[in-house]
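Letters spell out the chain; the tokens describe the backbone. To illustrate:

===
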Amino acid sequence: MFKKINKLDFLVACYIACLFIAEILGSKTFPLIKIFGYQFTASVGIFVFPLLFTINDIISEVYGKDRAKSVLYSSLIMIVFLFLFSLFAVSLPVSDRFHYRDAYDIIFMKSARICIASLSAFIISGFIDIHIFHKLKNKLKGKMLWFRNNASNILSQFIDTTVFMTIAFYASNEALVDNINFLIGIIIPYWLLKCLMSIIETPLVYLGVKWIKYYPKNHNG
């Protein structure tokens, strides 16, 4: 079965799966560590978001900038689709046997807001990641993949995290100072964790690139 799987299709499927996991489940935050009485938190999306940038860099390295942009465009369309379907699903009446209307609406309307945050963050950070990666690739003549991967990821993930968290978690009913404190408490540790995981996942970029380059020549895709 695995031999019949197109490797690029598999990477794109993983990309979309991680994206949807982050969209649907990413609104939950959990405590990380308390330092000097300040509680740092992170979104559960931390466990899948770094994989998005890793997969994007693998595709960029092997297939080039245009293919990476194509995957990004396709992902943005999927986020829009998820957002629109969330609105549609919430608007439908419920049957007598469905007793979780309020919880369902809260969860998936939250997912709708997460979709808007992701769209904004992805549009900005996704193209920045691809641009920096290929700019460095040209300057370094295709060498130092580890540096190109981490340099592009660290900067783009900071932008992604800041934009996403601000749109997704800013509470209009809270004071500005409280919002700023909360956002700093979630953006900084979340970004640092992304940086750490990006470094840890660097071998996956090399393995992924090697895996795709050994693609059978007679296999389409």
Remarks:
- The radius of gyration is 19 Å.
- The first helix runs from residue 7 to 25.
- DSSP finds seven helices and two strands in the chain.
